[in-house]
User: Fold this.
Amino acid sequence: MKPLANPSLSPSRQAEGAQNRSLERGIEILRAFRPGSDLLGNGEISDRTGIARATVSRLTQTLVMSGMLDYDRDARAYRLGVAVLSLALAMRSSNPVLQIASPLMRAASEKYRANVGLATVDRSEMVYLESFRYNRRGVLRTVVSGQRVPIELTSLGRAYLAAAPEENRKEFIARLRAKSASRTGTVSSGLEKEINDAVAHVKEHGFCIASWQPEVIALASPVEITGYPIYVVNMSVTGKDTLEFVVNELRSPLLALRDKITDNVLMQLQEF
Assistant:
């Protein structure tokens, strides 16, 4: 699916950024690395990005020199360099919304015995910025910062679409239709209806519900703060409880958490 436009960028900013093709392609090369993709050769990177192999070869050398990639001579392939991790840490530690939200999320997770996450959009996926997983048996958490989930299937993604500009939402739906038709020859009208129903539910009640994994029910609500990207906070539980029971248990805590995050960020902004 073609990437969803980023509503935080104005058209003029997008056009300005698109003029530097080398930088744009270099970023696409870094994006080719995902969990499970430890080593990628120039050919694999070319296949994943659509960038000509000769161009990939030139840009990967530059990325190695800048510390963004490491080159494995034996495998004749590349892996992400330590500089990428350093950038991720800088992003996490300097994000004021995340710094304010994290302790509130942890407290909510412990109080309501629920999983609590915060995410934002990156192209056609939602990316977790933070996640607290509640489990009485102490099982290691399965969602970590940086993990991606689909927009169209998750409460996170659908809550984001409800808050995104209407043109972005329509563009995403159009691409979803094209993707579905190319794979099956038909359009998944059921999925589109679920998304539209979720968007309407957010506009009326402030949150939406999804259960795209077995025995997992999640509620999500957008966190909208002027000058920041659209964030989404969610709460979920794993088990055999009914949808109605989970919604009744988590609806108020979720909306209260959203409001606390928003109010605390605005309060901090007023102090500067």
About this structure: Residues 7-15 have pLDDT under 50 and may be disordered. Residues 11-81 form a domain with the Arc Repressor Mutant, subunit A fold (CATH 1.10.10.10).
